[in-house]
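Subject: design request, 611 residues
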């Protein structure tokens, strides 16, 4: 046994847990302490437990007695045994926490008290957790070091209790095991470590049913993407052409567009622009010829919706005076019509869309030039409007055609791309580049400067052609994933790090693979390669989009457009593109053609402000 004054050892005794226990008094409590505060205060010991009571270790006097003995466990259903504290005095240990009984509360830990004048005390051991109890084992706390003559040493930390936590819940008088879900709400569950008497929320974004996730404790038809909750139909903040569609996936964006998704874009030859957004056509900028299509003659620095074309639009093109769009079940043009470029068998201009004559169903491509237009219908090439330079490709320079006419030279099928430029046009036919019309700078690509009123084949690179675009006296195309240009090159628009016209196709510097789109404008051109945008040529007003107004004879990256670019259009003055489903424009902004509610030029892309 351990006493306040000295240590005495009984050789014949058996010592359980370092303390000899003595019988309790008749009340079931441990023995009493002395009240005279003697240095050798009487010891107290834990009593044995009764069925419903609880037992505390004996207290010691304030000047230093021995440690109270560890209280024994209460009987089934009993409360915890509280350990006694050991005040200072000679070295003593705190009473250990009482072990909890089966089904009872966990014992609390003993705590060593401040060291006395000549000693120290150590922390009590943690109470052992009950095997089926609701409590957790306590941790003994080390006592403060003594500061007397006997030395100064901190008490050690008490041992951790060994008890386990609760393993079930009792909610509304019903027993549930850990992990059981609320029968009425699958996003609530029994989580005893959080609460043993109430339902706990399951984790945010946890799948709770087919096509549903948990959100604030409720099972909802929604998505959990990148640790963020999105309601059904919510727009991807980085791409409006994607949305949350729980029936497709609750953990990834689906390719279902929202009302802000841009899918096609066009920069015109006269300071206007248009885009297809969520199936509707919007235009902005110059409206001199009614080319915004909103039945007014007023220009606009922000997009306005084209009258009547509110859904189902697949593509749009903008020329100098006219704008055209193609749908699955109809095709329309609007704006200036002095040469019949609207194709509706009239020369009357129209500030609202009019139906193009002769095309009962959809077109696969459409292109508007200066006073002429072209399209692909059932695989055949058609053009209409002005024909002063033979740009209709019908074998004559006869006056305009007010309705679409088939391009001569066998372009009755297998045409995959067509483009009307300033005064010439080109098409990709059986992967071969064909061009017709003006050829003053070699834009037909046949090695001459002779104009032709019917298609001639440009000297094809050693690769199949997939796309072609006609600009102002120059042409560009894609062959085997590489970009080629030919024709006028006074401003480096051919992209070969030199000036001087090129009468046959030459490869654009650096764009040798991975090119998916190309567009020839007034005196500059642009392309998309591996998802990034590049432009080259004349750079007045910043139309190359690289943050400068310095011309470049080789492609330069468009600022910030290193990925996610899906469409690009070089106009006569400015440029527009689509990146991650959003429309941007850059360059001169004389009449609001950038669509950002201003008339300030920008040498870097600015976001078009749709309503």
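Subject: RE: design request

Done. Sequence follows.
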């Amino acid at each position: 046994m351990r006493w306040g004054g000295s240590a005495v050892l009984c050789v014949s005794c058996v010592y359980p847990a370092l303390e000899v226990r003595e019988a309790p008094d008749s009340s079931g409590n441990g023995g009493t302490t002395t009240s005279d505060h003697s240095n050798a205060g009487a010891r107290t010991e834990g009593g044995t437990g009764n069925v419903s009571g609880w037992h505390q270790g004996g207290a010691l006097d304030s000047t230093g007695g021995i440690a109270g003995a560890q209280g024994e466990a209460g009987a089934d259903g009993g409360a915890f045994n509280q350990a006694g504290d050991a005040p200072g005095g000679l070295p003593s240990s705190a009473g250990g926490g009482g072990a909890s009984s089966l089904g009872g509360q966990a014992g609390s830990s003993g705590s060593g008290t401040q060291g006395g004048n000549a000693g120290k005390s150590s922390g009590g051991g943690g109470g052992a957790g009950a095997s089926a109890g609701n409590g957790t084992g306590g941790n003994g706390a080390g006592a403060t070091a003594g500061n007397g003559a006997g030395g100064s040493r901190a008490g050690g930390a008490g041992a951790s209790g060994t008890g386990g936590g609760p393993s079930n819940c009792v909610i509304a008088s019903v027993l549930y095991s850990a992990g059981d879900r609320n029968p009425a709400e699958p996003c609530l569950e029994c989580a005893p470590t959080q609460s043993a008497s109430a339902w706990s929320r399951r984790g945010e974004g946890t799948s709770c049913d087919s096509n549903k996730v948990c959100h604030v404790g409720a099972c909802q038809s929604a998505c959990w993407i990148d640790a963020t909750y999105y309601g059904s139909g919510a727009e991807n903040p980085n791409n409006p052409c994607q949305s949350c569609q729980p029936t497709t996936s609750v953990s990834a964006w689906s390719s279902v567009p929202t009302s802000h998704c841009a899918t096609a874009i066009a920069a015109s030859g006269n300071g206007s622009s248009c885009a297809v957004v969520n199936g509707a056509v919007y235009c902005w900028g110059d409206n001199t010829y009614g080319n915004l299509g909103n039945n007014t003659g007023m220009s606009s620095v922000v997009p306005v919706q084209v009258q009547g074309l509110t859904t189902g639009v697949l593509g749009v093109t903008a020329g100098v005076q006219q704008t055209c769009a193609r749908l699955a079940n109809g095709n329309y043009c609007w704006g200036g019509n002095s040469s019949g470029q609207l194709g509706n068998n009239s020369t009357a201009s129209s500030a609202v869309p009019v139906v193009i004559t002769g095309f009962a169903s959809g077109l696969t491509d459409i292109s508007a030039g200066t006073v002429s237009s072209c399209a692909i219908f059932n695989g055949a090439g058609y053009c209409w409007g002005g024909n002063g330079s033979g740009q209709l490709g019908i074998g004559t320079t006869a006056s305009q055609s007010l309705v679409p006419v088939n391009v001569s030279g066998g372009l009755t099928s297998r045409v995959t791309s067509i483009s009307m430029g300033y005064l010439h046009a080109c098409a990709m036919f059986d992967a071969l580049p064909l061009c017709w019309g003006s050829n003053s700078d070699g834009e037909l690509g046949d090695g001459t400067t002779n104009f032709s009123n019917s298609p001639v084949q440009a000297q094809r690179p050693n690769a199949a052609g997939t796309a072609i675009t006609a600009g102002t006296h120059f042409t560009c195309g894609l062959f085997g994933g590489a970009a080629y240009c030919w024709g006028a090159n006074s401003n480096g628009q051919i992209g070969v790090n030199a000036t001087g016209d090129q009468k046959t196709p030459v490869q654009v510097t650096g764009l040798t693979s991975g090119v998916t789109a190309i567009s020839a404008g007034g005196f500059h051109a642009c392309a998309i390669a591996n998802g990034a945008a590049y432009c080259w040529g004349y750079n007045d007003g910043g139309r190359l989009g690289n943050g400068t107004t310095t011309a470049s004879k080789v492609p330069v990256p468009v600022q910030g457009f290193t990925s996610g670019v899906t469409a690009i259009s070089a106009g006569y003055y400015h440029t527009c593109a689509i990146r991650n489903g959003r429309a941007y424009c850059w360059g001169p902004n004389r009449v609001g053609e950038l669509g950002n509610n201003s008339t300030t030029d920008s040498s870097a892309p600015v976001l078009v402000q749709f309503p």
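Residues 5 and 364 are 105 Å apart (CA to CA).
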